[in-house]
Amino acid sequence: MSEADADMASQGSDPDDEGLSDSSYQDYSDEDINDYYNYGPDDMEQDDRGQIFDPEAFEYFLFNKEEACQFLDERVAELTQTIQFSPQVSHTIGKVLLQAHQWVLTEVMERFREDSVQLMVDCRILPPPSRAKQVEPPPKQCPVCLQAQEEKDLLSLACNHKFCTDCWQRYFQVQVEDGVATGVECMWSDCRLITTEDFALSILKNSPVTLRRYQQFAFNDYIKGHYQLRWCPGPDCDVIYMAPQPLGRKVQCKKCKTCCCFRCLKDYHVPADCPTIESWLRKCADDSETANYISAHTKDCPKCNICIEKNGGCNHMQCFQCRYDFCWMCLGDWKTHGSEYYECSRYKENPNIANESAQAQAREALKKYLFYFERWENHQKSLKLEEQTFQRIQHRIKEKVMNNMGTWIDWQYLLDAANLLHKCRYTLEYTYPYAYYQEGGPRKKLFEYQQAQLEAEIENLSWKIERAEQTDRGDLENQMDITEKRRLTLLRDFSES
């Protein structure tokens, strides 16, 4: 099986948006929905360039540090040029304003036009008007070290709390050692004004090591605070993602090959959104010991009871002794798992659970969680097992080419099939956290139907790939088209916009 981040040209169908609301599906039977989604190539939605609609299409760019710095400076320059700032507001003040608003330029400009002074107060650049009016006598000594100082040697922010340069320098060194940069506050006990970058640079100009660390931490704060920027989560990677529309979509680093969700930087997880997958992973971690018993690799054949080990990714199992075909997940007859409906992916709620005891409700909740967790974990294992299938295919192709039984191009369709299987099963894996948290109703019924359709086609594709030598090429490519069509349809209807 190929890596999850393998690039492939997406193919699939995309029906009209009509009928996707809950109310539109209230009276639809399974047959109605099946007829609705039996459309052909002519029904595929296309863009202005004639390209097939891809629900995963996402525009993003990869920046190095210099490019990211330039991008940030351009945003600050755009802000300072658009708004007629008063003289005391510098380039670094613009950074503070943008950082306080996740670098949303329009929001800062709107607030500045409404009340520039209040904006400065809210961003902790200026003290509140009541405190600003207080007139204090000039100090004759530093309040920290209590050493007598000339007034010119005492430095302060807009709050006028003055401290000597040495105390400021030691204070910054301690803050930087703790990883604080853009959030360094005034040293006065009850003052929360923050220091600007130019103020910090003037203090640390004679301490190059601390200055470099401050600039690194400040830059990191700017990246983390920008709604369009993300650090690549790869180990020791300095690549920065920039997405004009910060959606929960897949991004891949060309340097370290890390693939993740742009919004949360976790593994790519559509159709589940970021809060859903965060809740699911937290629940899996909390309940991992409870679910350990379902992690075994062996089950008994439901017909002859011989112990069977799952050594491939496909859930369509055939007993080597009695040749019985059954489903690994539910142990049901595989004949009942046709493409019309794949029932074992749907959890059947107890309609009377609300009237049961608290203990019965707790058992039902655990039963529901284990149902979805088992299928989630099973597809994770299938992905790993199918990687072995991919390696076997590569080895067989190499043998055929060496024996003059065609070229690599002639057998490329087998690798394409394995890549597509990985991509589809990866999507299917994340449909189970989505389904676990989805509320019941017509929309969930539609989702479960599409999930079942996708799962059935994936198992058909996996079965054919594992028997690629006996599978007709046309039959395999047709199965690839059907499977990808099901995947794109589900993502179009249920991934976040």
UniProtKB/TrEMBL annotation:
InterPro entries: Ariadne (IPR045840), BRcat_RBR_TRIAD1 (IPR047555), E3_UB_ligase_RBR (IPR031127), IBR_dom (IPR002867), Rcat_RBR_TRIAD1 (IPR047556), TRIAD_supradom (IPR044066), Znf_C3HC4_RING-type (IPR018957), Znf_RING (IPR001841)
Intracellular or extracellular location(s): Nucleus
A GO cellular component entry from the record: cytoplasm
SUPFAM superfamilies listed in its UniProt record: RING/U-box (SSF57850)
Superkingdom in the source lineage: Eukaryota
GO biological process, alphabetically ordered: protein ubiquitination; ubiquitin-dependent protein catabolic process
Name under which the protein is recorded: RBR-type E3 ubiquitin transferase
